[in-house]
Design goal:
By secondary structure, the chain is an alpha+beta fold. It contains 12 helices and 6 strands. Strands 2-1-6-5-4-3 form a 6-stranded mixed sheet. Strand 4 and strand 5 form a beta hairpin. It is globular and about 65 Å long. It starts with a helix and ends with a helix.
Length: 291
């Protein structure tokens, strides 16, 4: 029955969106793919489909692979630094995030690093790392050999984890540090900010050419402290911040006149200092925050 097909699709839809979002790092592109998957599902002869979950997953990941080519081309002409679209995850929008690995798979840090991957590398990495599919299952979905998927996964993991290691701190530590950060930044306390920052801290801002933002990363504790202390000049009298779980991490949402105008997410180093500040102020990327 048609209603059974709709119900089956709706059962899997959250997982398909979660998969597509990890592939793109973009909400709208993920939603477009999921809609196309539904259209193909609705017109398919489901009597010939032995495993609905496998069919839907295969169609989703292969549509993502195809569309990533044009998405990556658009990002090559992006103004300034590109960051993934932030998503509030406290309500389960990107699936279960109960383990460190699950949280890592949707973090802005990892999604940004995944931009180094080719579409096939990204597909294998996401299916294996985030969803736990076996190499045999991935090989069937992507029309590869098991040996191919193992090699691709190994290579993708090396490319994603190149550079400084990302340490996971407790939500309590993160919130305490962010509260101190917010107090120092909002009062222009450069010395106070510097005490919270790692020596090699990086600040990356994504304004997309629509909002004033640094077009290159700002690096180093002293430089980042001075840079962040100046940002309060851009805040209006009605500006306020709220804590929110963003992509599995404790983050801040900036509101102006009750509308979200920015998101800040933080990474920490082994000593618990702030190692990275990622700021998204491109209004095009705040749709999920505004819901």
């Amino acid at each position: 029955m048609e209603s059974d097909g709709v119900a089956q699709f709706l059962e899997h839809r959250p997982r398909l969106f979660s998969l597509a979002y990890r592939m793109f790092g973009a909400v709208s592109e993920a939603e477009d793919v999921v809609q196309e998957v539904y259209l193909r599902w609705a017109s398919a002869d489901r009597g010939e489909i032995a495993n609905g979950e496998a069919w839907l997953t295969t169609v989703t990941v292969n549509l993502c692979r195809t569309q990533l080519v044009s998405a990556r081309a658009r990002r090559e002409t992006y103004v300034g630094q590109w960051l993934p679209e932030p998503v509030p995850t406290g309500g389960g929008a990107l699936g279960p995030l109960g383990t460190v690995e699950e949280r890592e798979s949707v973090s802005l840090a990892v999604l940004t690093a995944m931009e180094r991957l080719s579409p096939i590398e990204r597909a294998v990495f996401v299916l294996r790392e985030a969803f736990g599919y076996s190499h045999a299952e991935i090989a069937e979905m992507l029309d590869l050999t098991v040996a191919n998927t193992q090699q691709i996964f190994h290579r993708a993991g090396q490319r994603v984890r190149t550079g400084k290691q990302r340490f996971v701190v407790s939500p309590e530590h993160a919130r305490t540090m962010i509260e101190k950060f917010l107090q120092a930044a909002s009062t222009g306390d450069v010395a106070g900010l510097r005490e919270l920052l790692a020596d090699d801290v990086v600040s990356v801002a994504d304004g997309g050419g629509r909002v004033v933002a640094a077009k290159i990363p700002v690096v180093g504790g002293d430089v980042v402290a001075r840079y962040l202390a100046k940002l309060r000049r851009f805040l209006g009298t009605t500006a306020r911040f709220e804590f929110s779980e963003i992509n599995g991490d404790v983050g801040l949402v900036l509101f102006q006149d009750e509308a979200p105008i920015g998101v800040l997410v933080f990474d920490f180093d082994e000593a618990g200092a702030i190692a990275a500040v990622r700021t998204v102020v491109n209004p095009i990327k705040l749709g999920a925050i505004a819901v």
